[in-house]
User: Fold this.
Amino acid sequence: MNDAEVIVVGGGHNGLICAAYLARAGVQTVLLEARDSVGGCASTVNDLGARFNICACDHSLIRAMPLIDELDLVHYGLDYLEPEATYVNTFHDNMGSWVFYHDHEQTIEGLSKTHPSEVDNYKRYLKDSMPVANLAIEIAKTGVSLKEFLQTASKRRMRGASRLLRWSKASALDVFNEYFDDWRMYMPGISTGPTVWGAPPEAPGTGLAATVYATRHLIASGRPRKGSGSLPDAILRSFLDSGGKVHVNSVVEKLIIEQNRVRAVQLQNGNILKTSKVVAACDPHRVLLNWVDEAPVRSKRVFDRWRNEPSPEGYESKIDGIIERLPQYKFMTEFSGKFDHTELGQSTVVISPSPEKLAEAHKLKSKGEISDKPTMLASVPSVLDPEMKAQNGLHTFGIEVLFTPYSLKGGWTGSEEPKKWLDIWGNLAEGNSVADITKWRAMTPDVYERDFFMSKGHSPGYAASPLATLVGKNKELSRYQTPINGLFLTGAATFPGAGIFGAPGANTAKVLIKSPEQE
Assistant:
C-alpha cells in the first residue's frame, strides 16, 4: 500500500463522501474499509436469491444536501424513485391509521378523511414548524458554530430562530403535545425520530425531532433505483474518478502518534501507512479508546471523558425476505374508498406502539427484553422498484424492529425472537402473510457486530442538543477536530447526526481542507 496525504477510515456513505470531497480538492486520499466492499449500513447486498438493503431504504435529508450535485452523483448512476405516499402510519391495535404525503396539502386532505378533528392542529403545527425545519436544514448544510448560526438565521431574517432554540431545550413529547390531541398523530414522528435514536421522547433536548413531519414535507423521501447501495456506489465512482484509492479488507489496529501528531496508521496485518491526517468515519469510542495507545497529555481530559462514557449497545434489527403475495394490511379496510388514488404498497408502513407501550419498551430494553408491541418499519421495496424483485420474480420485503437489545436475555444464538416479530407483523395483515414468506433472514445486533465491525452492534448517532452544539461542546463531534493534530472524526456520531444524511462527511472534508497545518 502507498502512503497518503489523508487516510479516511471507514467506507460508509459519510466516509465515502468525505473522501470524495478531498480527492476532488486535489488531496491525495486513500480510503480504508474493513469489509470486502464499501457502503456500510447504506449497502444493498445479495442473499437468498435477492437484493436487500442493510438498513432503511428511504432517503430524505441527503436529498437536500448540495453534495449530490457537487459530487456529480446523478452522472455516476444515482437515480431516486419517489413513492406516491411516503408513509402509512398505523398501530398495533389496527385503529387510527393515516397517510403521510410529501405534499402537505395531500396529507391534510387525507387527515380530513381519517382524523378530521386534527386537521386544524396539523395546520397550526406546520405554520410553526416549517421555519424551524428550514433553518435546521440550512445549518446542517454548512456546519455549525454560533457565528454560522447567526449568519444563517440572519439571511432568513431570523425566521424560526427563537423557536429552534426553545425547542432545542424541550422534549419531542413536549413539542408534539403543544399541537396534537390524539397520540396517534405524533407517535409516528417519535417512531422515526427519538425511537430510532434510542432516546425516550420525554428526554430534554429531543424537541427538534418534532420537526420530522415538516422536514419531510420540505424534502421528498426517495429510494435509489436498484437499492440503497446505489448511493455509496455512485459516491465511490466519483471518488475513484477524482484519483482516490480504496483498500478493502483493511482493519485498523492503531494510530501511530508522536508528539501529539498523527504519523501513520497500522493495520491488523502489520502494514503501516504513513500519513499526517486521518479521518475516522466510525465509532468514536473505538477510535479514541482502542486506536490510541496512550493519550497525549494535552488531550487527556477528552480521552478521560470518553473512557468514562459507557460503551453503547445496538438495539436495532431487520428482517429481510421473499414473499409470494403482497401483504394486505387490515388498515386497507379502514381506508376503503379514501385513498384509492394512491398506490399504498409503495409506502413504508410505520407501526407505532402506544406511548405507554413505548415507555415499557424502553424499560424492557435495559433488562435485555423485547416488547410484544415493538416499533416496526415495514416495506416492500420491489413494488416501487421492480429491479428489487428476487431472481424468481417474487417481491422482497423488509421489517426494521426496535428495540432489540444486543445483550438479549438468553443471547441471540438460537433465539426465537425474530420469528415472533414476523408473527406480530403478520397479525396486522389479513389472512396469513407469514405463510406467504418463502425465505427470510434476520439481521440482529450480533450480526451487525460480526459482519459490519459495529461494536456491540451499535450504529452511532450524534446525540448532543442544538444548544450544546452551537457553543462547541465536545468539539471532536461538533467541529470534527480532535485534540490530536491531524486526527479528525466524521460519520453518524458527529454533527448533524445519524441516518442517510451525508452532511457530516461533507462538513468534515470542508473543515479539513480549510484547516491550517497544525504544529
In short: The chain has a mean pLDDT of 92. The first helix runs from residue 13 to 24. The longest strand covers residues 316-323.
